[in-house]
Amino acid sequence: MRTGLKVVFALMIGGVLLSSSKAKLPIPEEIKKSVPKDAQPYCLFNVILKHIKEYYVRPVDDDELVENALSGALSALDPHSCYLNKKALEVLKVHTEGTYGGLGIEVMMDNGLVRIISPIDGTPAYHAGLKAGDLITHIDGAFAQGVSSEEIVAKLRGAPGSKVRLKIKRPGKDLFEVTITRAIVLVHPVRFEFHEGIGYIRISVFDKNTTSELKTAIETLQKEKTLKGIVLDLRNNPGGLLEEAIGVSDLFMDGGEIVSVRGRKASMNETFSAKKGDLLRGLPIVVLVNSGTASAPEIVAGALQYHHRAVIVGTQTFGKGSVQKVVLLSPEGGIKMTVARHHTPSGRCIQAYGIMPDVVVPLAEVKMIEDTFIVREKDIPNALDASAANKPADKSEKEKLEIIEKTAQKSNKVKEKDEKKDEKGKKEGEDGDKETEKDAGKDTAEERKMSVKERLEKDLQLIEAFSIVRALSVAHSTMRGVQKQ
């Protein structure tokens, strides 16, 4: 193996190997006697490489071997660290630009399987009925396990008009297949409506256009002279750019801390604060969140909650409070590595805990239905905890054998009855509960066409949010009247 590759690899995985020294690495006696202790793990690695090169059943290219080792070393640290080859780097860049060809979903690796964090509003995945928490088990017939999320994203993306077949495992459902036609995904992160004096603003993702589009939406709503306040819907928002989370928070705040970033090294520590000037000039805000609210929107919710600038409504958020840094080693690749954690202005770490709403409103439609399938950052194997030190526990072989079923059925409780059957399902009996490719996206596609008025007839969380804005608006108007006197 080339010396340069050995040096790069040693530098990049040294932390992994040294941290594993407590596990009694099988270092040969000749290495112990002739090599300084700090260098022994690297020598062990070279010994293993030599055995692979000499005895493995097929020839292995040096670059392939090192790339796979890098990928394994980084992905073992936590769910968000990974090695980025050239193609993965391109995918990452395109995603932050807000325009790409593909399905429009945010995914993560969970027990070696691909879990959907959230489909982005209006994209092919959204209209196909894919949901937060779904597991993608197969892509075009190939079992999708044991590869990085970047590789999965690369497989899901492709030329507009081309098709991709996915097998999906959803809690309480049989494995089903759906074929989706790829399209140019033009992500418009912000959409808004005005209804009965209240502005409804939906942010679906935090890309480079989010803050500017949100500002435009607010300015448009302010032209309505009767604007009483806004509902900011961050449900099923998978996150995005840190700077956009800061920008969005800044629009609603009149100064004060937004978020602090704290890492192992002091150079990584930074506190971000809002500038003077609240664009809404104190009008009431209600922020809607749920278990699909992850990362950037959690920063917004945490900041507005701490400063009492908004009432947070919904269910506990995902809990992704870690910061990743992309290091470009060359035009051919680099690494994405977790380097810090997000903390709310109160000093509480978002990681693993998420944001707890001020007003907890469960998912409900007509009658209360329990959200039995909730996955958060803390549920992912190797997820960081909120403390400075973190050492994920290894899973037993028995647990590994139950990966698919357990991963698909994670929840606080497993309900004995299916409370989600609609009238059609009741008439057709058990067959009515089976999803087909044709039916998979029906509800979500119809919901997207709904106006706020129509949504208010079935979305309990939205109903509660509007009610709170109305109540706060009365208090706000009363307070302004007192101040004028």
Q: What distinguishing features does this structure have?
A:
six-stranded antiparallel beta sheet, 21 strands, globular, 485 residues, 2-enoyl-CoA Hydratase, Chain A, domain 1, six-stranded mixed beta sheet, alpha+beta
- Helix % is 25-40%
Number of alpha- plus pi-helical segments: 16
β-sheet strand percentage: 15-25%
Q: Can you identify the CATH class of the domain at 188-324 and 337-371 and 437-476?
A: Alpha Beta
> How far is the first residue's CA from the last residue's CA?
81 Å
Low-confidence stretches: 1-21, 410-446
| Overall pLDDT score | 81
Subunit organisation of the chains? single chain
Radius of gyration, rounded? Answer: 24 Å
Can you say what the CATH homologous superfamily of the domain at 188-324 and 337-371 and 437-476 is?
Answer: 2-enoyl-CoA Hydratase, Chain A, domain 1
Q: Which geometry do the CA atoms define?
A: globular
Number of strands: 21
Q: What would CATH call the architecture of the domain at 188-324 and 337-371 and 437-476?
A: Alpha-Beta Complex
What is the structural class?
alpha+beta
CATH fold call of the domain at 188-324 and 337-371 and 437-476: 2-enoyl-CoA Hydratase, Chain A, domain 1
The major beta sheet can be summarized as:
6 strands, antiparallel
